[in-house]
TrEMBL record:
Keyword hit for Transit peptide: yes
Descriptive protein name: Acyl-coenzyme A thioesterase THEM4
Residue ranges of every copy of the Thioesterase domain listed in the record: 123-193
Record's bilayer topology term: Peripheral membrane protein
Gene3D superfamilies associated with the record: Hotdog Thioesterase
InterPro entries: HotDog_dom_sf, THEM4/THEM5_acyl-CoA_thioest, Thioestr_dom
Taxonomy, superkingdom: Bacteria
Highest classification ranks of the organism: Bacteria, Bacillati, Actinomycetota, Actinomycetes, Kitasatosporales
UniProt main location, coarse: membrane
Amino acid sequence: MHTPLTEPPAEAGADSLEDQKAAITRLGHELRTLVETTVRTAASPDTLHRVADGVRQVTAQLTGRRRARAEIPEVDGFPGGPRMYSPVVGAGSPLAPPVSITPTDDGLIGHCTLGLAHEGPPGYGHGGMSAMLLDELMGQACTAAGTPGMTVSLQMRYHQPIPLETPLRILGRVTGTDNRKVFVTGTITTEADPSTRLVSADGVFIAPDPDRARALFPGLREEA
Ligand SMILES: CCCCCCCC/C=C\CCCCCCCC(=O)SCCNC(=O)CCNC(=O)[C@H](O)C(C)(C)COP(=O)(O)OP(=O)(O)OC[C@H]1O[C@@H](n2cnc3c(N)ncnc32)[C@H](O)[C@@H]1OP(=O)(O)O
């Protein structure tokens, strides 16, 4: 896009932030394809060694400044917005399915499909992945309800295994609050059969008090 020289810097910044997010998303997609292909391939040791050399060369191209541990990158919407590098929803994360989330009448709904990279028992999702999916949806449901909090308890119930390569639906809903405590439930079903719970969870989330939040997240922007 052609940007006139007279355009205010803030808008130019917004443009480049969108460019940055688009590039991060594209690389994330390619990396997820690499990860899934890697865990499925039956390639020979020679091929695997050659690919490992190639990946090492690719990694070496990601030079420049590295972010510090607690730094919140400009592309990151923490605490209320999209998290580019979240291992659950991050479009830029090679670890994320990634889950796409939209609001419902009384909570949030997430959609994703797990691949062989997320396998626990052969053909089914890892139980820790289910916990991760629910923790995220339930945590984001707290934020969406206006009471952002951190998980202090997550009670998981595994009713049936989660099939891989099958569109899934994840629900998160706040059921009550008590001072800084937020009570939340969540379920995972398939898209095809949303009335059969495969996994369900009850959680307690706690909003850290403001001093604690500043100490935990020193990179938190003033307006958050
Ligand atoms: C303005 C910015 C705010 C930002 C905060 C929002 C962050 C949202 C993040 C991201 C977006 C959403 C996406 C993320 C989704 C994934 C969420 C995660 O994975 S979070 C990582 C895993 N969780 C931890 O690492 C927590 C570790 N725990 C702690 O750091 C502390 O426990 C903390 C700060 C959460 C609370 O500490 P205290 O000292 O403020 O709270 P005390 O005083 O101990 O407890 C308050 C009340 O809660 C009860 N409580 C404590 N633990 C409980 C438990 N396990 N079950 C039930 N109640 C419990 C206590 O009995 C107390 O109750 P009584 O007020 O006395 O009635």
